[in-house]
Structures are given as C-alpha cells and as structure tokens.
Request: fold
Amino acid sequence: MLEIINFIDALQPCFALQSDNQMGVSKEWFTKKWPFQLAYRGELAELTEHMNVWWWRNAEPNVPQAKLEIIDAMHFAMCYPLQDYLLSGADLVQQWDDFKSICYVDLKNNADTFTKLSDVKDLPTLIDIVSSIEVSKVSNFSIVMVGLLRLFQNIGGDATEFVNLFIGKNA
Reply:
C-alpha cells in the first residue's frame, strides 16, 4: 500500500500539467460531459494492438508505444476529476489537496480491489479489468491510477518512468 501512496503523491506534477492542458480546452467540452470514458478505453484498445495480445497475430510488441498509450489513457482519466475544479475556478493547490484526500480515502475503502489489481499477471486480463473501471467517478480515480500503473509495470515500466513520461521527461 505504501507504494501506491507514494505513487499518488508523485502525481502532483501530472495533476498540475493536466490542469494547464485542460485550461486550453473549450469549456463546452466539459459542460457537455463528452465521453472521456470512451477515449480512455480507446487508448487501452490501442495498448492491446501495440502489445500484440491477440493470438492470431505474429508481431513483436511495441513496448515504447504501448507505454505512451497508457499515458494517453491517464490524460483522459484525469479529465473527469479535474473538469469540475476547472469550471469552478478553484485554486490549484487546494484542488490537489482535495484530490489527494479523496484518493487516500479511496485507497482505504478499496483495498481488495488494489490487491486484485496486484495479483493479475496476464496483460489481457489486466487491460480488461482496468478498462472497465468507470473514470467518471472521482472516487474511482486512485483505482484507475493504480490500474494504469499496474499495466505500465506489466510491460516493464515503473512508477518513476510513468510520471516522467506524463510530464514530458525522457519521452
């Protein structure tokens, strides 16, 4: 669990970057509640293509591109929890503190789900589980983030690389 708490703490620069990115998006996109869930699942579908999880294909996995698809999925997953904050004009520091508090409560309330995500070793099953998590609920955010981290680790990455790719370091 400490690994997950450290990972959530390490997301602060990702949160700030995503906030900046979303400031440039039309508010209409958020008020109409466009389908971020569909975009999130689309990125995970692209992950399956790059990792060649299909038995009928004989191609080499493209791990660097697969990692980027996970990062793209994270961008869409972060859109939901941030959209209400951005529309309210709340201070970014307060947003992060509120957001982190929600994640910590979520971690305590969903310990079984985190254990399940840690226990799954095969990539297709893990993708299926992670893509089924509803990103529109802020209370699911830590589950989504841990699921994406587990996918990233499954293909050879770690939490530091995950955050660095998101914020544009070593990309």
Q: What stands out?
A: Residues 105 and 167 are 26 Å apart (CA to CA). The longest helix spans residues 63-88. DSSP finds ten helices and no strands in the chain. The radius of gyration is 16 Å.
